[in-house]
Design a protein that fits this description.
The protein has a single domain, classed as Farnesyl Diphosphate Synthase (Orthogonal Bundle). About 70% of the residues lie in helices and about 0% in strands. It has 15 helices and 2 strands. It is globular.
Length: about 300
């Protein structure tokens, strides 16, 4: 968590406590989801738990919780979508780290899954986590959530990880190595690869709270889109000037792999300005929610000001 803003630190302290509570809650939910019974797959199950548990910012499940809470949803109805989106996120990290993708050795301050286990196991970990995410979202109790809303949640998550979302963004990323993209191309890649799942997290929280359409959902969709792009631009910035000890991974990887990023395309000052513009646009999108959106606005600040 970044330093509290100037002025009265109490709102930030309350926000930090809420984020910490979300992280603690999702750890327990994920631990239960990963208590898989099949004795014939002990190595795979161990690798899944290694990849998922005990590390990470848990931004996406936190967005599910904060969005749903702001709309009056009970926490118990948010556990399944929060777990599902984090399982998908971890699956994407495990696959992104593979030699055929980004070829990274460190993730969250420790060896990546294919280094701790092996490449074949890492592929299966990602496959299994993706399947488990949809199983959790389809089957786990969500008090007060209608079957229609649950089906909409499954559709939203599926779309976020497909060709128009995460997988499509990764495909653009791979094709762009050694190439020059303009700013619009960079933003399209980032909105798909990273932003789509962050936007999805906000929508899942809203859907679990019974907001399945109308101005509120549109406002939250816009908020999620701006925060998602801001998050990835800040990631690009941190890859240039971040502290590896705080990040839990090496910096300079994008430049080493000749991958176009926002700073390499538009320059570091422009990247920082764009991240701040997106933060302001995200906060403005929350206006229809009034005071209920306080924690989400603070999270937008955190995304742009974070050091890890």
């Amino acid at each position: 968590m970044s330093a509290p803003p100037a002025g009265d630190p109490r709102p930030f302290t309350v926000f930090a406590a809420r984020v910490a509570a979300c992280r603690a809650r999702i750890e327990g939910v994920l631990d239960r989801a990963l208590a898989l019974p099949d004795p014939g797959t002990a190595r795979l199950r161990a690798a899944m738990r290694y990849s998922v548990l005990g590390a990470g910012k848990r931004l996406r499940p936190t967005l599910v919780y904060l969005t749903g809470e702001s709309l009056g949803a009970p926490l118990a109805s948010l556990d399944a979508p929060a777990a599902a989106v984090e399982l998908i996120h971890v699956y994407s990290l495990v696959h992104d780290d593979l030699p055929a993708m980004d070829d990274d050795d460190l993730r969250r301050g420790r060896p990546t899954c294919h280094k701790a286990y092996d490449e074949g196991t890492a592929v299966l970990v990602g496959d299994a986590l993706q399947g488990l995410a949809f199983e959790v979202l389809a089957n786990e109790p969500m008090e007060g959530t209608t079957p229609q809303a649950r089906l909409q949640m499954i559709r939203v998550l599926a779309r976020a990880i497909g060709t128009s979302g995460m997988a499509g963004g990764q495909a653009i990323d791979l094709a762009a190595v050694g190439q020059v993209l303009n700013v619009a191309g960079i933003e399209d890649m980032h909105r798909r690869k990273t932003g789509a799942l962050i936007e999805c997290s906000v929508l899942l929280g809203a859907l679990a709270a019974g907001v399945t359409g109308g101005p509120q959902l549109a406002s939250l969709e816009s908020f999620g889109a701006q925060v998602g792009l801001a998050f990835q631009i800040q990631d690009d910035i941190l890859d240039v000037e971040g502290d590896p000890a705080l990040l839990g991974k090496s910096t300079g990887a994008d430049a080493a792999h000749a991958k176009p990023t926002y700073p390499s395309t538009a320059g570091l000052p422009a990247a920082k300005r764009r991240a701040k513009e997106l933060r302001e646009a995200a906060i403005a999108a929350l206006a229809p929610l009034g005071t209920r959106a306080g924690a989400l606005a603070q999270l937008a600040d955190f995304v742009v000001n974070r050091a890890s």
